Amino acid sequence: MAGIYIHVPFCRHKCSYCDFTSFPDKIEMAEAYMACLYKELKMRGDELKEYEFDTVYFGGGTPSYIPPKLILGAMNQIRKCFRLKPDAEVTLELNPGTIGESKVQTYLQAGINRFSIGLQTAIDEQLADLGRIHNVRDYVYATKLLAGQNFSTDVMLGLKNQTKDDVAKTIELAYRCGSKHISMYALTVEDGTPIYTDYLNGELPDSDEVAEMYEFGRKLLEEKGYKRYEISNFAMDGYESKHNLNYWRRGEYIGFGVSASSFMQGKRFTNTFDMDEYMKCVISGFYPAVTSEQVSETDAKFEYVMLALRTREGLSMQGYKNAFGTTLAEDFPNALKKTVKYLELDGERLKIKDEYLYVQNSVLMPFMEEERE
Ligand code: SF4
User: Fold this and answer.
1) Radius of gyration of the chain from Cα atoms?
2) In the predicted model, what is the mean pLDDT of residues 27-45?
3) Residues 241, 327: one domain?
4) Start-to-end CA span in the chain (Å)
5) One domain, residues 172 and 76
6) Is the pLDDT reported for residue 372 higher than 70?
7) Is the pLDDT of residue 10 over 70?
8) CB burial of residue 54 (10 Å; 0-12, 13-18, 19+)
9) Which of 191, 221, 246 is the C-terminal boundary of a domain?
10) Exposure on the CB side of residue 297, measured as CA atoms within 13 A
11) Confidence at residue 373, expressed as pLDDT on a 0 to 100 scale
12) Section 280-302 average pLDDT
């Protein structure tokens, strides 16, 4: 499998927790930026002629903030420069505060067939605390416009004054509005973001409280028919995100736009995070990648284990052997011994037991230590 990622770095307002590459004051540059992105697509098109791509993902930033004709233009350019599978999954991240009927029509015309909506919480005061530009009513309106479409909803845990009841309300709302997929993840507090002050003041739930909320949310989601297929991702049958599954299966992907990263032909590379530098580079006909490394075999083995064990499908022992020519037991004998109580074998697949999936980082630690020996 292979995926295409498009980074759209414009937002109407910077959320209080945001550490992504997004610019709240540069929307007037959207046309010029996307023109550069179309050129970057063209530059890569020739060298990736032999690939057939399974997924496209517009992330950000807020892709639904820019004029929709620029999304249509990007899809036309992707189709011109690359081979896309006829049933390719094409996802667009959507902020409920930026959407209207004609935008949705243009997205459908462009071939977008999956939407990822950033709700975060169904409590308006918490949305205001996060600096989100939308309220709960905007989310309901967005889902009405997307009735009958495949869409996912983001739910955030660990917010100021958040209770289990709030988590339940958020999940209930997403379910009632027809979300086929829910991403439920903990707020990450980054140094330098406004919300960091709340964290220093002890105003955010601690990690044990967040773990309890997660467990509560997980049970509720499963009661409603959302199956967990990765630590933070739950879907009705058949609605798992193909684009993300490709990441966790260590599939190849190519990223376009400022700060986008790629993994192709054993190499990881990342574009510049600086918008002006990105545009200057592309206009001058250079690739805007600023870091590039060939992944060593040792790192590749650890990545394979780390990514596969995040998922419910787990790690295929045969797949590992096919990829590296050695077995997991040969490469990680000590880590397997140390983590035996957390793991289970399901046929030929190794999985983290359901009850330990949320603490997978500590389960993976011995694999990381052994990789470094
Ligand atoms: S909408 Fe997303 S990318 Fe934009 S500021 Fe908020 S969190 Fe950051």
Assistant:
1) 21
2) 97
3) no
4) 32
5) yes
6) no
7) yes
8) buried
9) 246
10) 7
11) 67
12) 96
Q: What is the mean pLDDT of the chain?
A: 95
The CA 62 to ligand 1 mean position distance, Å, reads: 7
Closest residue to atom 7 of ligand 1, CA basis: 18
Name, in order, each residue with C-beta under 8 angstroms of 67's C-beta and a sequence gap of 6 or more: 30, 31
Whether the Cβ atoms of residue 324 and residue 296 lie closer than 8 Å to each other: no
CA 57 to ligand 1 centroid distance, Å: 16
Taking only the tens place, the pLDDT of each residue in 72-122 is 999 999 999 999 999 999 999 999 999 999 999 999 999 999 999 999 999
The pLDDT of residue 359:
84
**Judgement on whether residues 220 and 337 belong to the same structural domain of the protein:** no
Cis peptide before 61 (omega within 30 of 0): yes
Which amino acid appears at position 112 of this protein?
I
**Does ligand 1 come within 6 angstroms of the Cβ of 14?**
yes
Cα distances (angstroms) measured from residue 291 to each of 38, 59, 66, 283: 21, 21, 28, 19
Tell whether ligand 1 has an atom less than 6 A from the beta carbon of residue 141: no
Apex 28 CA angle, 27 and 31, nearest 5: 95
* CATH code of the domain covering residue 126: 3.20.20.70
Domain boundary among 246, 269, 284: 246
| Domain assignment of residue 362, given as a range | 316-372
- Crossing angle of helices 30-45 and 68-81, in 10° steps, is 10
